[in-house]
Amino acid sequence: MARKQPKQPAKQPPGKWEAKAKADRTVAWAAVFERLIDKCGLAGAFLVFVCIFVVVFASADQKRDIIDLFILGRGIRALYPALVSSAAFILLLFGQQFYYDRRIRRLQIELTRLGQWKSDHQDRQFDEPLHHSGKSDSGE
Predict the structure, then answer these.
(1) What's the pTM?
(2) Which of 23, 38, 68, 79 is the residue whose CA sits 20 to 30 A from 106?
């Protein structure tokens, strides 16, 4: 007769506290990456991310091959490693330009809003409207 195996307890789905902890860790890492983008730019942050990924996940032989090929330039028999690296870097630079343009536009809108709030607040404090200077030469 076949032996009965002891019953294993069913695996429970992660509880709400475990899911919240995982979400908090993800948000924390996203904040670190965002701060890195602010300090180093998108291309620099990507380079740091790739370096950390290689250090953590690559074997010693893979690390040696990556250093030989992409840093020292040894063993380049085809043009594609240089083209792929250059294309990725150019795309990252365009992405960085897009990111900073959006950020500058958001800051300009906030400055305009604060200036209008200040003017409205000052106008309310006096019975008569204040004299506002004309537009500056910069067009703002």
Answers:
(1) 0.54
(2) 23
